[in-house]
Write a structure and sequence with these properties.
Elements lengths: L22 E3 L19 E4 L2 H7 L5 E6 L32 H18 E11 L4 H10 L3 E10 L15 E8 L10 H7 L8 E4 L23 H11 L5 E4 L6 H8 L3 E6 L2 H12 L23 H6 L8 E4 L5 E5 L5 E2 L4 E2 L1 H9 L6 H4 E5 L2 E4 L1 H11 L1
Parallel strand pairs: 2-9, 3-4, 3-8, 5-7, 8-9
Antiparallel strand pairs: 1-2, 4-6, 5-6, 10-11, 10-14, 11-12, 12-13, 14-15
Helix pairs in contact: 1-2, 2-3, 5-6, 6-7
Bound molecules: S-adenosylmethionine.
S-adenosylmethionine binds next to helix 1 and strand 9.
């Protein structure tokens, strides 16, 4: 959720679904060129109704990724006011209220169970929450057999202040990312995440502003159309990290449609469930206005795993590094090794592949020799990986 503050007590949660399980085509139309329905799912729709029922009705193992922003059960009473006495616009909707923690846990078990049913064995699930619910969600995920891969902290660059001054400013939310089982061969687009982060490994703390300004959807009276609209930047990263173009993303608690809007833009298939007809309509209109990126090449994944394997020996054969060339390892080039004619390298105490010798000189369990070792390139030193890339470029 975006920054949430509950204002006003009210009746315990009662889910009211108006209009049955109608579907709104999300305006995707036949824009994407990937196949549809090969998994038996009619996708690219906002479906009105209870997500538990609807996920149970999806074919087993048909979904690649679930992103869920469920009710947080904020459990706060009373209106909250700013120091100037204006009322804080928080989450006071019935869908966020539960009679007890037990009731919340039972609801969580039900929807997570339904998500597990429709998720592929190699699929993953993301659940976002705050300290109010995320620990309960984490335990239930594990109880159901999911395997937690990361907890990602969304650090808000512009959090809501703590008006009462009695606690720390609540400046983050947590996303649990989990695969269906410990053995799942799940998708993680490591290279895309690294590229998105200026060629540094993406960390698990994400610094992203809450949704505001032009991105925040308003009703005709200028009031927020949904109290907990998530920033598209957050979903951009989630979708890019854990799905491939054409894969099916399901959001059981669609709200204003953020997950679907981003998925559509990034040429993924999507399906959103929403119990409230007014929110479903907001989402439908929003998604319909989104254009998918028109050139598939622009969303194609950066993946070195799919690039041809280049043995280090090819650099020697091609004369890019002649036998006897000194390689330097470590931030200050404190380790050295000599290139041998057969593509192995030798240091003072070790002989073997660039990876083996790199690991051995550092006393490390493993080493990526391509990025560890550097060679003299005129007035500077460059990682040997640039030479591998040259060969890759030639082969393309
Ligand atoms: C936290 S909001 C999601 C906000 C959304 N991520 C966004 O960016 O707009 C949760 C949404 O779930 C909906 N909801 C609650 N219980 C539901 C259920 N059982 N099935 C489907 N939708 C439900 C609520 O109406 C609410 O819009």
């Amino acid at each position: 959720m975006g920054s949430r503050v509950a204002a006003g007590a009210g009746p315990a949660r009662k889910l009211r679904v108006v209009g049955g399980k109608g579907g709104f085509p999300g305006g995707a139309g036949p824009v994407l060129d990937h196949g549809r329905d090969d998994d038996g799912v009619i996708a690219d729709m906002v479906r009105l109704g209870d997500c538990i029922e609807q996920m149970r009705e999806l074919p087993a193992g048909s979904v690649d990724m679930v992103f869920a922003d469920p009710p947080y059960n904020l459990q706060l009473d009373g209106e909250l006011h700013r120091p100037n006495n204006s009322r804080v616009d928080g989450v006071e909707e019935a869908w966020d209220r539960f009679d007890s923690l037990d009731a919340y846990d039972a609801f969580t078990r039900d929807w997570l169970g339904a998500a597990r049913h429709c998720l592929k064995d190699d699929g993953t699930i993301w659940v976002i929450g705050s300290y109010h619910n995320i620990f309960r969600v984490g335990a239930i995920l594990q109880d159901l057999g999911f395997w937690i891969l990361n907890d990602v902290v969304w650090r808000k660059s512009n959090p809501m202040p703590n008006f009462r001054g009695r606690r720390f400013t609540n400046a983050h939310e947590t996303m649990i990312w989990a695969s269906k089982t410990k053995d799942s061969r799940y998708t993680f687009n490591y290279q895309s995440m690294k590229a998105l982060n200026d060629d540094l490994q993406m960390r698990s703390d994400w610094y992203i502003p809450i949704c505001s300004g032009g991105e925040r959807i308003k009703d005709p009276l200028g009031k927020k159309a949904h109290p907990t609209q998530k920033p598209e930047a957050l979903l951009h990263r989630v979708v890019l990290a854990s799905t491939r173009p054409g894969e099916l993303v399901v959001d059981p608690f669609l709200g204003s449609g953020t997950t679907a809007a981003v998925s559509k833009r990034l040429r993924r298939r999507w399906l959103g469930f929403e119990a409230d007809p007014a929110y479903a309509e907001v989402a439908r209109a929003r998604i319909a206005a989104v254009e998918p990126v028109d050139d598939p090449e622009l969303v194609a994944l950066e993946s070195r795993r799919e690039a041809p394997r280049i043995p280090f020996g090819w650099l020697v054969e091609r004369g890019m590094l002649v036998p006897g060339t000194i390689l330097y390892g470590g931030a200050r080039g404190q380790w050295t090794a000599k290139v041998r004619a057969d593509g192995t390298v030798v240091s003072a105490d070790a002989k073997g592949s660039i990876h083996q010798v790199g690991a051995q000189v550092q006393g490390a369990p493993s080493c990526n020799g391509w990025t560890f070792w550097q060679f003299d390139a005129g007035t500077t030193r460059l990682p040997i990986d640039v030479l591998r890339q040259k060969i890759r470029d030639e082969l393309e």
